[in-house]
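cron nightly-structures :: item 1 of 1
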Amino acid sequence: MALLSPTRFLQIHTSAVPRRRKPSPSVACSAENPDLDLSPARSSIPSLPAAPSDRKSNLAVFASATAGVCAASGGGFLFHFSSPPPPSGGGIGGGGGGWGWGSDGGGFWNNVFSPLPASASEDDQVSGVEWDSHGLPANIIVQLSKLSGLKRYKISEILFFDRRRSSTVVGTEDSFFEMVSLRPGGVYTKVQLQKELESLATCGMFERVDLDCKTKADGTLALTVSFVESTWQGAESFQCINVGLMQQSKQVEMDLDMTDKEKLEYIRMQERDYRRRIERSRSCLLPEPVQNEVVSMLRDQGKVTARLLQRIRDRVQRWYHDEGYACAQVVNFGNLNTRQVVCEVVEGDITQLSVQFLDKLGNVCEGNTQLAVIHRELPNQLRPGHVFNIEAGKQALRNINSLSLFSNIEVNPRPDEKSEGGIIVEIKLKELEQKSAEVSTEWSIAPGNFGRPTLTSIQPGGTVSFEHRNINGLNRSIVGSVTSSNLINPQDDLSFKIDYVHPYVDGVTNPRNRTFRASCFNSRKLSPVFTGGPGADEVPPVWIDRAGIKANITENFTRQSKFTYGLVMEEISTRDETSSVCTHGVRALPSGGLSMDGPPTTLSGTGTDRMVFAQANITRDNTRFINGAVVGQRDVFQLDQGLGIGSNYPFFNRHQLSSTRFIQLRSVEEGAGKLPPPILVMHGHYGGCVGDLPSYDAFTLGGPYSVRGYNMGELGACRNILELAAELRVPIRNTYIYSFIEHGTDLGSSKDVKGNPTEFFRRVGHGSSYGAGVKLGMVRAEYAVDNNSGTGAIFFRFGERF
């Protein structure tokens, strides 16, 4: 196509329809497995071919589009894309304890631009599968005008012949393929084929274009699109502008009866209008390095061609979608016959945020949760005035899901029909029932000789729990539970706990995130302090009963760090097997009798202590999952400070620091079903105490969460403790095997515990172990060697060591 002179103005456009895509299935991702690949898809605009992508798409951003080219000024063109309404559906969704992305195919740009009708869309094709044979000899060229207007021709093949390059390629391999609405295997009439040729000839992409039909022996036609690609003046600079929320450029009609002077004035007016459009536009997010890359493309190419514009569009959109701007789309190219190419981008500006509550049937209803609770969980990038980003949508899902108030969560971006290029973010929520109760039964399993699991009792235990959540719609809750290890005779062992949780202490609109918790509790646990050493006769157990109240405030500094501080008032009683109060530890004598002069069980010496102390805890957890494996750092510091209130006026300071590192040893590709990396775990734990320390609060050495290969407290009870551990995890199939080495020591502080229970029960105060194991679901099966005795045993443990 010849370049336009300053005295001429040409209005040109083209249209096309997209190839039909199969609907994308919804994808659900558990909150415990956030490694699912949720990368944004690239937009597909049939006017220009989309860049190839090997990234999986879970959020449909494909915009069924048409393209148009119109002159913007005397020396230049405006290359325009417009999108027809896509299918409904799509977005971000999560249910229960998980979250995910679902879509039914389609895109975001619904009625943003006026669509141009396709010349031979799938809806215009002759319905049914019946078609007519051409009835001509094979392998001859037939002009469109010679085809019968009464027949329905089947197109078995589409080829593209570039006259300038003298090359022929299969249609799907040519970048101009999506400019053509015809598809191999389709059935078309002569009128439809002629309309397709007319559309291609007037689109402005080609200086010359023809459709040639070649007969085939099976009665079908092979279609060849022979063309000469349009070119424009070479450009040396590139400008990218954000035209979101601006009125899109319209194709301009020119009166053919205008005089040359009137036409020239009209063209100058168009030039001024476009310059003002550029001035009113906003700067785009495209970084300078990418813009420099486009400038290099322009300078290397020389003349601007349609294929070059395709490559520029693909490069620009690829950056946006790689960075999570899933709604961004190149809509126009302006100033094509000047020294500067202007790329107009609609980035997907958020104009409105809508929160809707749904009932069990999916109908919109009035929710109990106050909107301020939802809004405070949303990242700023998801609010009006920002550009929609797919990562912000996922962050909103995680934040809202952490409230534990909803059974289903959806974040759906959709086009704003009142603002061109705008995005409305819809958040749809299904609330959980406010009140719930449940009963569970269980039989306890405890490690016996050599760590073998044994049934502690044939009498079933169980828990009755209830919860009233989201009181007043402010996420306040009351949770209670009653537990007994003997449901047949629960009065022998009955414990309870009632918690009241009051978030947003400083107000729901205050950015400071503090939560108040109050608890009332009664519990019983077996004390590992009064336990025999290795090879010792069985020691009568001592049970620790605790009853009291606890109140604290937790302040979340970030998602990874929090600080908790509060007060604890409790009564502690030590009891023997008969539930009678015991004041001293007991051990068996060689004569078969019992020694009742063991270490005192309480600070007061009466078997019952009462005390008030302050408690603080600070946690920094930067761990994350890579294909199911934990990677990162976790540090916890806890402090208990006695206030001198209670039995014998206890004043003490008990502190401990735990630090764990999960080191990734090899880089792996992240995604669902991918193998996790090998992990080296390094762990250290230090604890210390000064002042009045009751025996039941002494640090204990040995056990599945201290030094493996020993029973709970088998190594000693002390005022100061140091534990070091290393574990190497190697993935195999759907689990991992591991080897470990651990060491624990009392730092010589066992003698400082009142009554020295370590010496009394013949324990050594230190020990090491090593071994290997395999993770089987929630169970750890491991073989551990006790370095003190040099013997090994197989242990079965539940949960994680670190």
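cron nightly-structures :: done
The longest strand covers residues 629-646.
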